[in-house]
Amino acid sequence: MIAHLRGKLISKHPNQAVVEAAGVGYEVNISIPTFPGLPATGSEVALFIHTHVREDALSLFGFLRVEDKQLFERLISVSGIGPKLAITILSGMETNAMVASIKGNNVASLTRIPGIGKKTAERMVLELRDKLDAFGVPEAAAAASPVEEDVISALVNLGYQRALVERAVGRVTKATDETFDTLFRKSLAALAK
After folding, report:
1. Nearest Cα to Cα of residue 31 among 72, 81, 90
2. Among residues 99, 16, 96, which one has the least CA distance to residue 59?
3. DSSP 8-class letter at 78
4. This prediction's pTM
5. Which of 78, 99, 103, 108 could lock 137 by a disulfide, CB 3.0 to 4.6 Å apart?
6. d(CA 84, CA 15)
């Protein structure tokens, strides 16, 4: 099994990278949040790898942080979630927000991830709720306020990536009594920077 891969980054795309190690080019599936963390093509890169073996394929899934690999492995342990869907899940929501949603039984936020229906989200909560203590997400970060959720939803509908929007909203939120309009304008300005 391949658990770690260090080598020259030959090419990178939002969902895939090719890493050359010892003269062999390895095609590695990555999540969209991993993509911006990769160095420039031609540079050295190190990825934590999950090797997935099926009778007709051998697939590598790469992560810059060991925590992301561990979360990926927990996700594929849920019945009905395979490696491709797990990568989609990791691409659809920031790690801390996902862990907080699972720990907080927030099925509604999980169903906003493309490819996740209500039953799958409920299974994720049921099967992973008690297995994510190692990720140490503070309970206070568990859920956004209704106004924050509305702002996040509006910005995602405008085409921004959910993970970027959640970070921007988190940075600009100062008071709990902010109106939708105020928070929306501040968040949009933060995204434009």
Report:
1. 90
2. 16
3. S
4. 0.67
5. 99
6. 10
Q: Is 105 left (phi over 0), alpha (psi -120 to 50) or beta?
A: left
Residue type, 3: A
pLDDT digits (tens, 9 = 90+) for 140-191: 344 566 788 788 888 888 888 777 888 888 778 766 667 888 888 888 888 8
What is the spatial distance between Cα 44 and Cα 24, in angstroms, rounded to a whole number? 14
Rounded Cα distance between 16 and 28, Å, is 6
CA distance 190 to 169: 8
Q: Is 63 helix (H, G, I), strand (E, B) or coil?
A: strand
Cα–chain center distance at 71: 9
Structure tokens at 93: 């929501």
Give the dihedral of Cα atoms 2, 71, 152, 158; nearest 10 deg: 20
Pairing of strands 57-63, 24-29: parallel
How does residue 138 score in pLDDT terms, banded at 50, 70 and 90?
very low
CA-angle at 46, arms to 43 and 52, nearest 5°: 125
Beta strands in 23-167 (DSSP E): 24-29, 44-54, 57-63
Give every CB contact of residue 168 below 8 A, 6+ residues apart in sequence: 155, 187, 190, 191
Within a 10 A sphere around the Cβ of 118, how many other Cβ atoms? 11
Of 17, 41, 39, nearest in space to 30 by CA: 17
